[in-house]
Write a structure and sequence with these properties.
The chain is mainly β. The chain is 9% helix and 41% strand. The chain has helices spanning 19-23, 68-75; strands at 8-10, 17-18, 33-34, 42-45, 51-54, 59-67, 84-92, 98-106, 115-116, 120-134. The longest helix has 8 residues, at 68-75. The mean pLDDT is 85.
């Protein structure tokens, strides 16, 4: 099957699934709209008055609408009762290409990160923090594409 984007999610690099396959192809128009990687968690002002970045990179996936079943499929990676969990994601980087990251996935908060509707959740924002870029494996045959 061909997917519209390369956004992926998994508990390891080897088992990442296309997000569209998790939320259903009927929701493909509502698939994630990822923002670019934010390079720092915090921006601080030094005594000199200059601003500097501190912390790990972050990103966010936005869905215009997720049926309850699609939302539940994504939240399985966090687990029942947990507010966050370590995952692996494939998301767009600052250059517009896709890259793999180890990250902490955060459960969206009702009213702040999503709105309830009759059939699901609207304007869902899933945050990923502590992003650590993972090196891409070279082609196992040594071929370049």
């Amino acid at each position: 099957m061909t997917y519209l984007s390369e956004y992926k999610l998994g508990s390891s690099l080897d088992n990442m699934a296309y997000v569209e396959s998790l939320v259903g192809t009927g929701n493909a128009p509502n698939g994630p709209k990822g923002m670019a990687i934010v390079p720092w968690t915090l921006y601080r002002t030094a005594v000199s008055g200059r601003t500097y970045g501190d912390g790990y990179p972050t990103t966010e996936w936005n869905f215009s609408f997720l049926p309850y079943s699609a939302f539940a499929a994504l939240m399985e990676y966090i687990g029942d009762g947990n507010q966050s969990a370590p995952v692996y994601i494939r998301t767009r980087d600052d250059e517009g290409t896709y890259a793999n990251y180890h990250a902490i996935m955060h459960r969206p908060r009702p009213k702040q990160d999503m709105a309830c509707e009759m059939r699901g959740w609207r304007n869902v924002k899933i945050r990923f923090t502590h992003l650590v870029r993972q090196e891409e494996e070279e082609d196992k045959n040594g071929d370049e594409e």
